[in-house]
Amino acid sequence: MGKPRRRSADRPSSHVPLDVITVPDDTVLYVRFLGPWDGILTHYGKRRPIACPGPDECDKPTHRGKGIWRGYAPVEYYRDRPYEDWCAAVLQISERLVECLGTDELRGQVWELSRVIGRYGKKECTGTRMEDVDPEGLRLDVSIYEVVERMYRPVEPLWGVKPYFKPVSTLAPTKGAPPRALVERKEREGTARPAGAADMDRLRAARGGMLGTKTGENGKQETNGVH
Ligand SMILES: [Zn+2]
């Protein structure tokens, strides 16, 4: 067995194939963007997603089915092993990540990308802009088109598709005391059943008693549901 070979400082690391990368599930990926993203539509395929060649050329039943938008951008990702270097790649981008990336010119932006549990319990891509580097010093030889088209061969995807993700805002509720009118009504009614109690009984029966009731601290019956 020979000695492990070491790269001398002045020798460039060996070439790596230009490939599509995705945001990993279990670790953080650092990328610096070399240019803007471009998008295509894909459809569900038996084994893998099928690129959409556009509404005119696409198989009609397939095109009517659900489409998934995918974006691709030229990047360099950081490797700390085997060498500390930046590898050229084509980054696959989800609609969710596009939302994070914003509308600025991406070239020169350094991002930390990862996956977090999203609002549907599924892992979603997220990213944070960490710093900006001088775009003048970045390479210009990474093109996404050839790489992506090779991936979806033989179908040639229609480029220029914008994501159709609907922006949704979610805000945390504000904790606070009930309105005085409600407190007063409860006091007036004492232990009387609240409005809608009959409806809750019906709902409870329909769900096989899943909602249940519990006895509150003050001895009143409380419903484990939304009033
Ligand atoms: Zn289609």
Describe the structure.
- With 227 residues, this protein is of the alpha+beta class.
- The chain folds into two domains: 20-152, OB fold (Dihydrolipoamide Acetyltransferase, E2P) (Beta Barrel), CATH 2.40.50; 180-222, no CATH class.
- It is 18% helix and 27% strand.
- The protein contains five helices and ten strands; from the N terminus they run E-E-E-E-H-E-E-H-E-E-H-H-H-E-E.
- The chain has helices spanning 60-64, 95-101, 144-152, 180-189, 197-206, and strands spanning 20-21, 29-33, 38-43, 50-51, 67-79, 85-93, 109-117, 123-132, 213-215, 221-223.
- Strands 1, 2, 3, 4, 5, 6, 7 and 8 form an eight-stranded mixed beta sheet that branches. A two-stranded antiparallel ribbon has the order 9-10.
- A hairpin with a 6-residue loop joins strand 3 and strand 4 (50-51).
- It is extended and about 80 Å long.
- The termini are far apart.
- The model is unreliable at 209-227 (pLDDT under 50).
- The structure holds zinc ion.
- Residues 41, 43, 52, 58, 62-63 line the site of zinc ion.
- Zinc ion (ZN) binds at residues 41, 43, 52, 58, 62-63.
